[in-house]
Amino acid sequence: MIIKENFDLLKGVPNYLTMSQTKINKVSIDRGPAKIYTTLKLIENRINHYTKKKVFAELEKIKKNQKVVALTSIEGYILPVSVVKSSGLIVINLSPFGSDDISRVDPNNIYAAMVYGICFRDLIKQEIKIKDSFSGIVSSFLLTIFMKLFGKEFGLLGIYSTKIPKLKFLITSYVLISMFGMPENATTFKKAAHMSQIDFKQFKDEIDKYKFKDINLFIKTLSDSKIMPGITRHTFAAKFIKITSVNFVPALEDVSRFISILTTANLPTSIAPTFIQKYNRQEYEKILKTSERIFK
């Protein structure tokens, strides 16, 4: 599993933060951790979710003055949650909520941000190992989303439905190479073909034309392969942002964000597109099984 430094679709927005504690202090809200603690204790009895025990265990560390989380307002950083990679500090950013006052933010969003942060932190710190076999779950779930968002536009739900197996192959190749760090070679493509249940010989002669190292190349491949002819980075990103929100876009590039945002989608929150879990319930349950390992 590769931890991306920046997101191409979000024009270089950092995945994790490399800010010093001094810089974090400059963007931090006064008594932020205590305010998070108070806000969530007020709704504790209303929460019934498998993440609850670990979230409140983390909150108890705040009472001991341990540096677990920072409440910030980072102008220009469009994501509500990140982590300082070197220290594991969870950073909840109020700026995307349009306020620097936690009392004006739905407490459910603060809880979801803590869940997101814990999940993301443990994944990038490799507290939980994600096996390469998880790539199949990512690929299958992304295929469902692509079909929901682009199926009608490119005829994949109609006369061009025969292209769906090829789309799955291309998505799986991208996930294996760009998100799990496998080499861009015949062995990986054969693995992608096997996972997609298609004959690799169908694509052997054309595969050298396509590239999967990053999402920009993958989008170009979707167009060049005639699966989504004419699609561009701009139209691709715009569609995802419109339907799923900007917060979901990192899940298309980074496995740790993929798991974290989909864990959050299982909560009453505006951080994540909660409807997305209905797109492929079977694969979503598998994603939650991985998430549950983090919060057990």
- Using only CA atoms, what is the Rg? 20 Å
Shape: elongated
- End-to-end Cα distance, whole Å, is 22 Å
Kindly estimate the percentage of residues that lie in beta strands according to DSSP.
Answer: 5-15%
Number of helices: 11
Return residue spans where pLDDT drops below 50 for at least 5 consecutive residues: none
Major sheet: size, sense and barrel closure? 3 strands, mixed
Order of strands across the widest beta sheet? 3-5-4
**Residue-averaged pLDDT:** 93
Number of strands: 5
What would you call the structural class? Answer: mainly alpha
The helical percent reads: 40-55%
Order of helices and strands: EEHHHEEEHHHHHHHH
Explain this structure to me?
This protein has 296 residues and is mainly alpha-helical. Among the domains are: 119 residues, no CATH class; 76 residues, no CATH class. It has eleven helices and five strands. Strand 4 and strand 5 form a beta hairpin. The longest helix has 18 residues.
Short structural summary:
The protein is mainly alpha-helical. 46% of the residues lie in helices and 6% in strands. Among the domains are: 6-124, no CATH class; 155-230, no CATH class.
Characteristic key phrases:
mainly alpha, 296 residues, three-stranded mixed β-sheet, single chain
Q: How is the topology of this model organized?
A:
Layout: E1 6-7, E2 13-14, H1 21-27, H2 32-42, H3 52-63, E3 69-72, E4 81-84, E5 89-93, H4 107-124, H5 135-150, H6 164-179, H7 186-195, H8 215-224, H9 233-244, H10 255-264, H11 281-295
Parallel strand pairs: 3-5
Antiparallel strand pairs: 1-2, 4-5
Helix pairs in contact: 2-3, 4-10, 5-6, 5-11, 6-7, 6-8, 10-11
